[in-house]
Amino acid sequence: MVYHIPVMVEEVVAGLVADPDGAYVDATAGGGGHSWALLQALGPKGRLLAVDRDREAVAAARVRLAADARAVVRRGCFAELSELLAQEGIGPLSGVLFDLGVSSHQIDASARGFSYRADGPLDMRMDAEVGPTAAELIAACSERELAELIARYGEERAARRIARSIYRQQRLAPLTTTQALREAVAATRPQMLNKTLARVFQALRIAVNDELGQLQVGLTAAEIGLKPGGRLAVLAYHSLEDRLVKQHFAALVRGCICPPRVPICTCGRRPSFKRVGRKLQRASEAEVKQNTRARSAILRIYEKIEAG
Ligand SMILES: C[S@@+](CC[C@H](N)C(=O)[O-])C[C@H]1O[C@@H](n2cnc3c(N)ncnc32)[C@H](O)[C@@H]1O
Question: Is any atom of ligand 1 closer than 6 Å to the C-beta of 101?
Fold first, then answer.
Protein backbone atom coordinates (compact mmCIF):
# COMPACT_ATOMS: atom_id res chain seq x y z
CA MET A 1 0.00 0.00 0.00
CA VAL A 2 1.20 3.55 -0.80
CA TYR A 3 2.46 5.23 2.39
CA HIS A 4 1.31 8.72 1.40
CA ILE A 5 0.64 10.60 -1.85
CA PRO A 6 2.50 13.92 -1.58
CA VAL A 7 0.46 17.06 -2.23
CA MET A 8 1.30 19.92 -4.67
CA VAL A 9 4.69 18.41 -5.43
CA GLU A 10 5.44 20.51 -8.53
CA GLU A 11 4.45 23.76 -6.81
CA VAL A 12 6.54 22.91 -3.74
CA VAL A 13 9.66 21.99 -5.73
CA ALA A 14 9.36 24.96 -8.10
CA GLY A 15 8.81 27.38 -5.22
CA LEU A 16 11.44 25.99 -2.88
CA VAL A 17 14.46 25.03 -4.97
CA ALA A 18 16.20 28.23 -6.11
CA ASP A 19 19.72 26.83 -5.53
CA PRO A 20 20.19 23.22 -6.75
CA ASP A 21 23.50 22.89 -4.91
CA GLY A 22 22.11 24.09 -1.61
CA ALA A 23 21.24 22.35 1.66
CA TYR A 24 17.55 21.55 2.22
CA VAL A 25 15.42 20.22 5.06
CA ASP A 26 12.19 18.30 4.70
CA ALA A 27 10.91 18.67 8.27
CA THR A 28 7.97 16.32 7.68
CA ALA A 29 9.47 13.41 5.73
CA GLY A 30 6.48 11.03 6.00
CA GLY A 31 6.93 8.41 3.26
CA GLY A 32 9.63 10.53 1.60
CA GLY A 33 7.51 11.63 -1.38
CA HIS A 34 8.37 15.34 -1.23
CA SER A 35 11.95 14.54 -0.24
CA TRP A 36 12.37 12.33 -3.29
CA ALA A 37 10.94 15.02 -5.59
CA LEU A 38 13.23 17.67 -4.04
CA LEU A 39 16.25 15.44 -4.65
CA GLN A 40 15.32 15.16 -8.35
CA ALA A 41 15.62 18.96 -8.58
CA LEU A 42 18.96 19.14 -6.71
CA GLY A 43 22.40 18.97 -8.28
CA PRO A 44 25.26 16.65 -7.29
CA LYS A 45 26.33 18.97 -4.46
CA GLY A 46 22.82 19.41 -3.09
CA ARG A 47 22.03 17.89 0.32
CA LEU A 48 18.77 16.99 2.00
CA LEU A 49 18.02 16.29 5.65
CA ALA A 50 14.64 14.54 5.99
CA VAL A 51 13.14 14.56 9.49
CA ASP A 52 10.05 13.04 11.07
CA ARG A 53 9.04 12.39 14.66
CA ASP A 54 7.25 9.17 13.66
CA ARG A 55 9.41 6.03 13.67
CA GLU A 56 7.33 4.36 10.96
CA ALA A 57 7.76 7.42 8.74
CA VAL A 58 11.50 7.45 9.31
CA ALA A 59 11.70 3.77 8.31
CA ALA A 60 9.59 4.37 5.18
CA ALA A 61 11.56 7.49 4.15
CA ARG A 62 14.86 5.62 4.66
CA VAL A 63 13.69 2.92 2.23
CA ARG A 64 12.50 5.51 -0.29
CA LEU A 65 15.68 7.58 -0.18
CA ALA A 66 18.22 4.79 0.45
CA ALA A 67 19.80 4.93 -2.99
CA ASP A 68 20.60 8.64 -2.75
CA ALA A 69 23.83 9.54 -0.95
CA ARG A 70 22.81 13.24 -0.84
CA ALA A 71 19.99 12.44 1.60
CA VAL A 72 20.03 11.63 5.30
CA VAL A 73 16.92 10.70 7.28
CA ARG A 74 16.73 11.42 11.01
CA ARG A 75 14.05 11.00 13.64
CA GLY A 76 13.13 14.15 15.52
CA CYS A 77 10.50 16.80 16.01
CA PHE A 78 10.34 20.46 15.00
CA ALA A 79 11.58 21.46 18.44
CA GLU A 80 14.76 19.46 17.77
CA LEU A 81 15.43 20.87 14.28
CA SER A 82 18.24 23.25 15.28
CA GLU A 83 19.97 20.46 17.21
CA LEU A 84 19.64 18.03 14.27
CA LEU A 85 21.08 20.59 11.87
CA ALA A 86 24.06 21.11 14.15
CA GLN A 87 24.57 17.35 14.58
CA GLU A 88 24.48 16.76 10.81
CA GLY A 89 26.59 19.84 10.07
CA ILE A 90 23.99 21.02 7.55
CA GLY A 91 23.45 24.70 6.85
CA PRO A 92 23.00 27.53 6.33
CA LEU A 93 19.93 26.33 4.51
CA SER A 94 18.62 27.07 1.03
CA GLY A 95 15.19 25.64 1.76
CA VAL A 96 12.92 24.12 4.38
CA LEU A 97 9.63 22.31 3.82
CA PHE A 98 6.84 21.74 6.34
CA ASP A 99 4.04 19.51 5.03
CA LEU A 100 1.89 19.66 8.15
CA GLY A 101 -0.54 17.28 9.79
CA VAL A 102 -0.75 13.53 9.55
CA SER A 103 0.14 11.18 6.70
CA SER A 104 -2.30 8.81 5.03
CA HIS A 105 -0.36 5.96 6.61
CA GLN A 106 -0.94 7.33 10.10
CA ILE A 107 -4.66 7.67 9.38
CA ASP A 108 -4.93 4.24 7.74
CA ALA A 109 -3.06 2.35 10.47
CA SER A 110 -5.93 1.73 12.90
CA ALA A 111 -3.48 0.76 15.66
CA ARG A 112 -2.29 4.41 15.75
CA GLY A 113 -5.75 5.64 16.81
CA PHE A 114 -5.93 8.68 14.48
CA SER A 115 -9.04 7.62 12.60
CA TYR A 116 -12.67 7.69 13.68
CA ARG A 117 -13.49 5.33 10.80
CA ALA A 118 -11.69 2.29 12.22
CA ASP A 119 -11.56 0.94 15.73
CA GLY A 120 -8.21 1.08 17.50
CA PRO A 121 -6.55 2.20 20.71
CA LEU A 122 -7.20 5.85 21.54
CA ASP A 123 -3.55 6.82 21.02
CA MET A 124 -2.89 9.53 18.35
CA ARG A 125 0.77 10.06 19.22
CA MET A 126 2.96 10.72 16.19
CA ASP A 127 5.94 9.52 18.19
CA ALA A 128 4.33 6.44 19.65
CA GLU A 129 6.88 6.27 22.48
CA VAL A 130 6.62 9.78 23.88
CA GLY A 131 4.00 11.60 25.91
CA PRO A 132 0.44 10.83 26.96
CA THR A 133 -2.01 9.17 24.57
CA ALA A 134 -5.39 10.70 23.71
CA ALA A 135 -7.00 8.30 26.22
CA GLU A 136 -4.61 9.48 28.95
CA LEU A 137 -5.21 13.11 28.01
CA ILE A 138 -8.99 12.68 28.32
CA ALA A 139 -8.54 10.94 31.69
CA ALA A 140 -6.33 13.79 32.95
CA CYS A 141 -8.60 16.67 31.80
CA SER A 142 -11.63 18.03 33.60
CA GLU A 143 -14.84 18.23 31.59
CA ARG A 144 -14.35 21.97 31.22
CA GLU A 145 -10.76 21.63 30.05
CA LEU A 146 -11.82 19.05 27.49
CA ALA A 147 -14.61 21.31 26.21
CA GLU A 148 -12.12 24.18 25.82
CA LEU A 149 -9.68 21.93 23.99
CA ILE A 150 -12.37 20.71 21.56
CA ALA A 151 -13.58 24.26 20.98
CA ARG A 152 -10.09 25.70 20.45
CA TYR A 153 -8.41 22.98 18.39
CA GLY A 154 -11.49 21.54 16.69
CA GLU A 155 -13.35 24.83 16.25
CA GLU A 156 -16.42 22.83 17.29
CA ARG A 157 -19.46 24.76 18.48
CA ALA A 158 -21.01 21.89 20.42
CA ALA A 159 -17.79 21.34 22.37
CA ARG A 160 -19.46 21.55 25.81
CA ARG A 161 -22.16 19.06 24.93
CA ILE A 162 -19.59 16.68 23.47
CA ALA A 163 -17.28 16.99 26.49
CA ARG A 164 -20.23 16.26 28.79
CA SER A 165 -21.07 13.13 26.83
CA ILE A 166 -17.44 11.97 26.82
CA TYR A 167 -17.28 12.43 30.59
CA ARG A 168 -20.55 10.60 31.14
CA GLN A 169 -18.99 7.62 29.35
CA GLN A 170 -15.64 8.11 31.05
CA ARG A 171 -17.25 7.81 34.50
CA LEU A 172 -18.80 4.45 33.56
CA ALA A 173 -15.61 3.09 32.02
CA PRO A 174 -12.48 4.96 30.84
CA LEU A 175 -12.50 5.57 27.09
CA THR A 176 -9.63 3.60 25.60
CA THR A 177 -10.69 3.05 21.98
CA THR A 178 -11.55 5.22 18.98
CA GLN A 179 -14.89 3.39 18.78
CA ALA A 180 -15.77 4.38 22.37
CA LEU A 181 -14.95 8.01 21.59
CA ARG A 182 -16.98 7.79 18.41
CA GLU A 183 -19.97 6.50 20.38
CA ALA A 184 -19.67 9.26 22.99
CA VAL A 185 -19.68 11.89 20.22
CA ALA A 186 -22.52 10.16 18.34
CA ALA A 187 -24.60 10.15 21.55
CA THR A 188 -24.86 13.95 21.24
CA ARG A 189 -26.69 13.37 17.92
CA PRO A 190 -24.82 15.94 15.82
CA GLN A 191 -26.40 16.86 12.50
CA MET A 192 -23.33 15.81 10.57
CA LEU A 193 -21.66 13.06 12.56
CA ASN A 194 -18.58 12.61 10.37
CA LYS A 195 -17.74 16.32 10.30
CA THR A 196 -18.15 16.53 14.08
CA LEU A 197 -16.01 13.43 14.56
CA ALA A 198 -13.34 14.91 12.28
CA ARG A 199 -13.26 18.07 14.39
CA VAL A 200 -13.12 16.22 17.72
CA PHE A 201 -10.38 13.86 16.52
CA GLN A 202 -8.45 16.81 15.06
CA ALA A 203 -8.67 18.65 18.38
CA LEU A 204 -7.34 15.70 20.38
CA ARG A 205 -4.59 15.01 17.84
CA ILE A 206 -3.41 18.62 17.93
CA ALA A 207 -3.34 18.58 21.73
CA VAL A 208 -1.66 15.17 22.08
CA ASN A 209 1.14 16.18 19.70
CA ASP A 210 1.30 19.86 20.72
CA GLU A 211 1.11 20.56 17.00
CA LEU A 212 0.75 24.33 17.18
CA GLY A 213 3.51 24.73 19.78
CA GLN A 214 5.77 22.53 17.66
CA LEU A 215 4.96 24.54 14.53
CA GLN A 216 5.81 27.83 16.21
CA VAL A 217 9.21 26.51 17.34
CA GLY A 218 9.83 24.84 13.97
CA LEU A 219 9.15 28.04 12.01
CA THR A 220 11.57 29.94 14.24
CA ALA A 221 14.25 27.26 13.79
CA ALA A 222 13.79 27.43 10.00
CA GLU A 223 13.82 31.22 10.08
CA ILE A 224 17.21 31.17 11.84
CA GLY A 225 18.62 28.26 9.82
CA LEU A 226 17.91 29.76 6.38
CA LYS A 227 20.52 31.84 4.59
CA PRO A 228 19.56 35.04 2.76
CA GLY A 229 17.81 33.95 -0.43
CA GLY A 230 16.79 30.70 1.29
CA ARG A 231 13.15 29.71 1.14
CA LEU A 232 10.55 28.16 3.34
CA ALA A 233 7.44 26.35 2.06
CA VAL A 234 4.55 25.38 4.32
CA LEU A 235 1.61 23.18 3.36
CA ALA A 236 -1.22 23.60 5.89
CA TYR A 237 -4.47 21.63 5.97
CA HIS A 238 -6.64 23.53 8.41
CA SER A 239 -7.21 27.13 9.39
CA LEU A 240 -5.48 26.92 12.79
CA GLU A 241 -2.10 25.94 11.37
CA ASP A 242 -2.46 28.20 8.32
CA ARG A 243 -3.34 31.18 10.52
CA LEU A 244 -0.29 30.58 12.68
CA VAL A 245 1.99 30.48 9.61
CA LYS A 246 0.38 33.57 8.11
CA GLN A 247 0.67 35.59 11.32
CA HIS A 248 4.23 34.45 12.01
CA PHE A 249 5.43 35.64 8.60
CA ALA A 250 3.22 38.73 8.38
CA ALA A 251 5.31 40.19 11.19
CA LEU A 252 8.60 39.25 9.50
CA VAL A 253 7.50 40.54 6.08
CA ARG A 254 6.33 43.82 7.62
CA GLY A 255 9.38 44.31 9.84
CA CYS A 256 8.22 47.45 11.63
CA ILE A 257 6.14 46.82 14.75
CA CYS A 258 5.26 50.44 15.54
CA PRO A 259 1.54 51.11 16.15
CA PRO A 260 -0.20 52.50 13.01
CA ARG A 261 -0.78 55.90 14.66
CA VAL A 262 2.99 56.53 15.00
CA PRO A 263 3.95 58.73 11.97
CA ILE A 264 7.63 57.69 11.85
CA CYS A 265 9.06 54.28 12.65
CA THR A 266 10.82 54.20 15.97
CA CYS A 267 11.28 50.42 16.36
CA GLY A 268 13.87 50.27 13.60
CA ARG A 269 12.89 46.74 12.58
CA ARG A 270 13.36 45.88 8.92
CA PRO A 271 11.61 43.12 6.95
CA SER A 272 13.54 39.84 7.12
CA PHE A 273 11.34 37.81 4.75
CA LYS A 274 9.37 38.42 1.57
CA ARG A 275 6.52 36.44 0.08
CA VAL A 276 7.29 34.33 -2.99
CA GLY A 277 4.61 34.36 -5.68
CA ARG A 278 0.97 34.58 -4.77
CA LYS A 279 -0.20 35.04 -1.17
CA LEU A 280 -1.20 31.40 -1.12
CA GLN A 281 -1.53 28.56 -3.60
CA ARG A 282 -4.11 25.79 -3.81
CA ALA A 283 -3.96 22.40 -5.51
CA SER A 284 -5.26 22.21 -9.07
CA GLU A 285 -8.68 20.69 -9.72
CA ALA A 286 -6.99 17.81 -11.50
CA GLU A 287 -4.90 17.02 -8.41
CA VAL A 288 -7.89 17.27 -6.06
CA LYS A 289 -9.76 14.82 -8.30
CA GLN A 290 -6.96 12.29 -7.92
CA ASN A 291 -6.17 12.98 -4.27
CA THR A 292 -8.96 14.35 -2.07
CA ARG A 293 -6.46 15.19 0.65
CA ALA A 294 -5.16 17.99 -1.60
CA ARG A 295 -8.51 19.80 -1.38
CA SER A 296 -7.76 21.56 1.88
CA ALA A 297 -4.06 22.20 1.21
CA ILE A 298 -2.80 25.80 1.40
CA LEU A 299 0.76 26.42 0.27
CA ARG A 300 2.67 29.52 1.39
CA ILE A 301 6.26 30.26 0.39
CA TYR A 302 8.59 32.88 1.89
CA GLU A 303 12.17 33.95 1.15
CA LYS A 304 14.68 35.27 3.65
CA ILE A 305 16.18 38.58 2.66
CA GLU A 306 19.45 40.27 3.61
CA ALA A 307 19.13 42.28 6.79
CA GLY A 308 19.01 45.95 5.67
C1 LIG B 1 1.51 15.12 5.75
S2 LIG B 1 2.71 14.06 6.37
C3 LIG B 1 4.09 14.37 5.33
C4 LIG B 1 4.11 13.53 4.09
C5 LIG B 1 5.35 13.70 3.26
N6 LIG B 1 5.45 15.05 2.74
C7 LIG B 1 5.39 12.71 2.12
O8 LIG B 1 5.65 13.12 0.98
O9 LIG B 1 5.19 11.52 2.38
C10 LIG B 1 3.20 14.86 7.83
C11 LIG B 1 4.33 14.17 8.56
O12 LIG B 1 4.86 15.13 9.46
C13 LIG B 1 5.20 14.48 10.65
N14 LIG B 1 5.16 15.49 11.71
C15 LIG B 1 4.10 16.21 12.12
N16 LIG B 1 4.44 17.04 13.11
C17 LIG B 1 5.77 16.88 13.30
C18 LIG B 1 6.72 17.47 14.18
N19 LIG B 1 6.35 18.39 15.07
N20 LIG B 1 8.00 17.09 14.09
C21 LIG B 1 8.39 16.16 13.16
N22 LIG B 1 7.54 15.55 12.32
C23 LIG B 1 6.24 15.90 12.39
C24 LIG B 1 4.14 13.40 10.82
O25 LIG B 1 4.62 12.36 11.64
C26 LIG B 1 3.92 12.97 9.37
O27 LIG B 1 4.70 11.86 9.03
Answer: yes
The whole model's pTM is what?
0.96
270 neighbors 255 (Cβ within 8 angstroms): yes
Cα 280–Cα 276–Cα 271 angle in degrees, nearest 5 = 110
Residue 52 backbone phi and psi in degrees, to 5 = -155, 150
Q: Which atom of ligand 1 is nearest to the CA of 60?
A: 9
| Ligand 1 centre distance from Cα of residue 25 (Å) | 12
Indicate the CATH number of 127-208 among 3.40.250.10, 1.10.150.170, 1.10.3720.10, 1.10.10.10.
1.10.150.170
| Ligand 1 center–CA 30 separation, angstroms | 5
Residue of minimum CA distance from atom 22 in ligand 1? 52
Residues 6+ apart with CB under 8 A from 29: 35, 50, 51, 52, 57, 58, 61, 73
pLDDT digits (tens, 9 = 90+) for 31-78: 999 999 999 999 999 999 999 999 999 999 999 999 999 999 999 999
Q: Residue range 155-167: average pLDDT?
A: 97
